[in-house]
Structure formats: structure tokens, C-alpha cells
TrEMBL record:
Record-given protein name: Assimilatory nitrate reductase catalytic subunit
GO CC annotation: membrane
Domain (4Fe-4S Mo/W bis-MGD-type): residue spans on this chain: 4-56
Gene Ontology biological-process entries: respiratory electron transport chain
Amino acid sequence: METLVATETHCPYCALQCGMALSPAGASVTVAPRDFPANRGGLCQKGWTSAALLDSPARLTTPLIRDRHGELRPASWDTALDLIADKITAIIAEHGPDGMAVFGGGGLTNEKAYLLGKFARVALGTSQIDYNGRFCMSSAAAGSLRAFGLDRGMPFPITDLDDADAVLLVGANPAETMPPFLSHLRKATDAAGLIVVDPRRTPTAEQAALHLAPAPGTDMVLALGILHAVVADGHLAHDYIASRTTGFDEVWRIAAAWWPERAERVTGVSATDQRAAARILARSRNAYVLTARGAEQHATGVDTVNAWINVALALGLPGRAGSGWGCLTGQGNGQGGREHGQKADQLPGYRKIDDPAARAHVAGVWGVDPDSLPGPGRSAYELLDALGTDGGPHGLLVFGSNVTVSAPNSGRVADRLSTLDLLVVADLVLSETGRAADVVLPVTQWAEEDGTLTNLEGRVLLRRKAISPPDGVRTDLEVISALAARLGQPPARFPIDAETVFDELRAASAGGAADYAGVSYDRLRAGEALYWPVPSVDHPGTPHMFLDEFAHPDGRARFVPVDVRGPAEPPDEEYPLYATTGRVLQHYQSGAQTRLVDELTAAVPAVYVEVHPDTAERAGLANGDDAAVVSRRGTVRAAVRCVSSMRPDVVFLPFHFPGDGRANLVTNPALDPVSRMPEFKVCAVRLEVAGT
Ligand SMILES: Nc1nc2c(c(=O)[nH]1)N[C@H]1C(S)=C(S)[C@@H](COP(=O)(O)OP(=O)(O)OC[C@H]3O[C@@H](n4cnc5c(=O)[nH]c(N)nc54)[C@H](O)[C@@H]3O)O[C@H]1N2
Ligand SMILES: Nc1nc2c(c(=O)[nH]1)N[C@H]1C(S)=C(S)[C@@H](COP(=O)(O)OP(=O)(O)OC[C@H]3O[C@@H](n4cnc5c(=O)[nH]c(N)nc54)[C@H](O)[C@@H]3O)O[C@H]1N2
Ligand code: SF4
Ligand SMILES: [Mo]
């Protein structure tokens, strides 16, 4: 039912999940910011314009099926769903359950992520499910698990940062990726305590007292240099290390060899600045180390995260009130999306799929035999890479990701998608991946449905329905449920009501690391601030973790010894430059949504490459020229944007654009051995004048 009063909800985009109030306005809504701790009445340009897609003509309102001539044509829901179910049945008959694969997204609500994981394991019986969070949070999650025994992006409320005197931001550009977040860093900024580690002089770095600009992929060396300075300059937190950690000696054996002058030669960051960073953090009462994708999206991402956590531990920050370590989660439900079973190796509640007790618990909730649950499947890139190959999946269902644009080595990924017997994409708009699909299913969006998300601080939020969806679209839950029914599942096993699904998720997560048993829609409706774990309905939740002990059995945090490894593909004579990739303020991810919003495309219409003017000149290019950025895997065509603060050895490409402007045509799918994170943030390229 439509309401006349404003609906209090949250933004459809990033993990900050800014509070919004939506008032109905025709077929759309009017967006107003609301006072919520994460954003305090602020919104970024994407949030302000987010309603534009609700009544956009670009919106999908009917299923599409590819016809004999290769065109996508409107079809009825029954025709589309019957076709999908028939093809799935045929693929499984020929190749077995692992012949079908599922790819999910960290933007999906907890309910969707949960039901999708259950659908894959129970209705399809496949092990082949993973999601785009593998490209996002996986290195931070694995590093955090190793160090603390548990992964909650920020193990403290975001408002704790308000009292920080010093914050070390590593590979994060929140001035563009979460603008209202900067309000939490005001005290640190005013106290000359903001330190930013980024190869580029970003709008975030502009605000910092100290900007360290290492060559991409050399963070680990920088962290070792700073750790060395912490020890050598007498900043080590001896008592904390003795009482709350293990493993320092082994880490020091490695860091002892990385005195700042030596680290300077590898990273390009002066020894003086490394020592200054150590000093600023050590002198501050309340200090934090926060990492984001710049540090994490590497084939060495997990070790790099641990290298930065080691710095935080040496200073005695994690698990101390008013100080800490955290990572900035990315997607709207980047945190919850990794807890409820759409990851290849996980079951709901952050349980491991190869743990017999976890399997028994979840199978019990699902009413199936534990032995019927598949084991772990392939990680995201490995899954995409295996599509259509012998032993790989031949059918793929995509919910909430646009892999044609956002997966690394995207030329290869597009090629693999084209070999499938069945590609189904559920989306609100016709994404680039949707354009390659056999069947496209139109789904509702944020303001048209209820659901929960878990924001970057581990707080569970209720997104509420503010308006009715247009005719012809269904919710993801309805789509999953209808497919499950056609595959012979009892209807009650795949409910379509978000609250009902959530109640089942609570039971499935009960007793797990990410325990939601005590979170209810009623408590969320009443405005309770619930941070997981919330093991029972009378439990207040856990805003602060680790204050008494860490989650390892002995209660101590681990210094994890990490040895230096450079980028998988260092620059050489043929490909002399580092290419790195990332985000701009106006566009979101693959751009499938934001490229359809006029105000945002007017501001940033097309891909560009940031280059130092001298580097451009050496390649025969000037500002505005059409450049070819060439790697061993492909070529991106982009307009040159000369930026005098760029390192001369680095070029930067935003990844939000399609076609031959896809940054991922050049990126390297080298994977981290632990997290299976691809190396989005560094590969070797050369710059040329674009051919016509
Ligand atoms: N506008 C906008 N906001 C977003 C998103 C979006 O697409 N657009 N996406 C959301 C999501 S899912 C995510 S994951 C977050 C990501 O948020 P961020 O991590 O802040 O974003 P990125 O631009 O990917 O990377 C941050 C910085 O890492 C730097 N970097 C590159 N290589 C290295 C390196 O080797 N070391 C270090 N230290 N830094 C390096 C880049 O120059 C870049 O400025 O943003 C969220 N918010
Ligand atoms: N080169 C490079 N590549 C990167 C990165 C990088 O820094 N550099 N970052 C990586 C990171 S951190 C991330 S998170 C990924 C993100 O990249 P993608 O996974 O491609 O993310 P989106 O563009 O948000 O794609 C979401 C798609 O799902 C649709 N959608 C939105 N909400 C829903 C919903 O509720 N249900 C359904 N069914 N569909 C929905 C959107 O319209 C869109 O088409 O990109 C990764 N790729
Ligand atoms: S910062 Fe993130 S959550 Fe807030 S308005 Fe912008 S995109 Fe939305
Ligand atoms: Mo992300």
C-alpha cells in the first residue's frame, strides 16, 4: 500500500547506507536525506539522484527472451520461467548439478542473498555459486579472520571515528566513494591526523595532513617500513603486545630488514614521511587504521591487509576503546552479502560449508539431508573462467552483478559467457551482461520492496517499501521461488515474503559467527541499532567487538608474518607503466544504473585515463586526446586527462564504462592464493595514440 507520509529507508547504493526519507511523487519518489548516524543528513550525488531509475524509460518491465534471430524480445513470465526451468533440467541431466552456476551480488538484501544460496544448494544442488563480493571484500575478510578470528568490516560503530585524533586511510578514497563518511573524520583532519596512502592525489588525499603515494602494489613494503619506524622510534605498544597478541617476534624478524630508507626505494614514499606516519599515529590518543580496495584488490591482498593490521597491532589499536582497525565495506550489503551463503565456501551465519556441524545445522533448518548439500565451489573469477569448458558450468543465473564490465580480464569473460547453453540475468535495467543473456528477468528495486542490509559497521538496517513497483516486474524472491517450484521444490521452502525469509535466515544463522537470531523486523522497525552478533531477542547486539578478547580460541590477536611479494605483473620495457583502476564520485560500479541517470552522465559522460602530463607527452598524447591503454590482455580506449599530481609511472582508469572503454579489458586476473581476489589495482600497460 502506498503511504502519504515519507518512508524512512536507506540509499540503494554503497555500504554507508545513508538514511533517506522517500515521499511518493507520481510513479517515483522524492528523496530527502535524513538524520542517521552514518550520514547525519548528508547524501552524495548518487543518493540524491537515486529515484531517477524508478520511473526511467530504461527500466525493464517485461521478461525478454532471445529469439532465433538473436534479438531479445518481450515474453510472458510463464514462458520465460518455463523456458529457464526446461533448460536447467536439460543441463543438469547432461552435466550433473555442477553444470549450473549462480552468480550473486553484494548489493542484494540479506534475504535475497540467503534465498539465492539456498536455491543453488537445494533446488539446483550445485556447488557452483559465488558473487561479486569476491571482487570486493574477500581480502579484507580473510585478513581480518586471520588476525582477529572474525570478520566484521568495522568492529566498532562508525561514530567512534568522530573522536579520532588520527586516521590512516589505506587505499580508500571516501571523498568520492562515500562522501558523507568524511564528516566522521573531521576531528582527525582538524588535528592534522589524517594520513592517506594512495598512489594518486585524490580529493581524499587533498584533505590529509600527510599523503603517502606508493607505487601501486607496494603497500606491503610501505607497511613494513612504517612498522620498522614504529619499533625503531620507540612507539611499540609493549604491554598490549604482551597481553593481547601473539606472533610479534616473527613479524619483526621480517620488518627488521625493511628500514624506511630501504622501503623508500621500493615504494617511492620518503623515509621521513614513513616515520611521520608512525609518529602521528603513536602520539594520538584515539587512532585508527582503515583499509579499502586500494590495499586489498591485489594478488597479495590478504597479506597486504595483514601487513597493515600488523602496524595497527604494533601500536596497540585493535580492540581498544576509541582506537582500532577496520575496513571500509563497499556495496550496499557488502557485509551481509558475505554472511548468508552466496559465497562458494560458505553457509548462512558465516559458517564454513565444509564443516560437518555447520552443514548439519543448516540442513536441519532447510529440511534436507546434510549429505545432499554440495561442497565448496569455484571462486568468482575461476567460475567465470570455467564457463562452457569441459567440467565447467554450461548454464549461469546472474542476480545483481554486471560481470561483462566488472570482472577482470573482461574480454575473456565475455567470450566465456557467449559459449553458455543458458545465461539468465535478473536486473532492473538492461545491463551489458543482460544484453548477452538468453533470458532477462525484470525485478523490483530498493524503494519497491522490503529487505534488510548490513552496513559497513555491521549494523542491520531495514529498507522499506515506499511505492508499488510498475506492472510486470517481480521481486528477486518471487523469481527465485517461482524457479524453485518449477524445479520441483515444495513452495513453503522458498517463501516470497521478505520478513518470512528473514525469520528463516535468523534460524539458519543462529549459533554462527554472524548470528542474527535476535534481530527481528519488529526490533528494526522500532529503530533499534542492532550490530551483529545478536544471539537472542533480548540481546542488545554487539556494537563493539574485541574489547575484552579477540575471537581466536586463546582470545589473542595474531601478528601474521607476511613476506614481500610485488605485483603479479611488474612493468617492463614493453609495458612500462602501472595501470590502476577505481571509482569516480558520480558513477556506481559497472555503471549499469548510474549511466542511465542524466545528471550523472552529464557530469562524467565517458571513460578517461588520468596521466601525468610528461607521460602523456612521451606517448605523443595531449589532454583530451584519444589514447589506447594496452596490456597483455587487451586495450582500453580512453580520453587523456592530464593530471600533474599523478606519479609519472602510473595511469588510472575508472571502471564504470562499457564497450572498448572497459578498464577490465586490461586488468590482470592473477588471484590472491587465499581470498581468490583478482589484481584489479595493478597491471602493466603502455600508452599509445589510439588508432582509428
Ligand atoms: N562513487 C562511487 N562510490 C562507491 C562505489 C562506486 O562504484 N562509485 N562503489 C562502492 C564499492 S562496492 C566499493 S568496494 C567502495 C570502494 O571504495 P574505495 O576503496 O575508496 O575506492 P577505489 O576507487 O576502488 O579505490 C580507492 C583508491 O585506491 C587507490 N589505489 C590504487 N592502487 C593502490 C595501491 O596499490 N595501494 C593503495 N594504498 N591504494 C591504491 C586508487 O588510486 C583509489 O583512489 O566504494 C563504494 N562506493
Ligand atoms: N577494474 C576494476 N574492476 C572492479 C573493481 C575495481 O575497483 N576495478 N571493483 C570490484 C568491486 S569492489 C565490485 S563490488 C564489483 C561491482 O561490479 P558489479 O558486480 O558489476 O556491480 P554493479 O554494477 O553494482 O552491478 C549490479 C547489477 O545488478 C543490478 N541490480 C542492482 N540491484 C539489484 C537487485 O536487488 N537485484 C537484481 N537482480 N539486480 C540488481 C544493477 O542494475 C546492475 O546491473 O566490481 C569489481 N570490479
Ligand atoms: S554515500 Fe553511499 S549510501 Fe550515501 S548517498 Fe552516496 S551512494 Fe548512497
Ligand atoms: Mo565493492
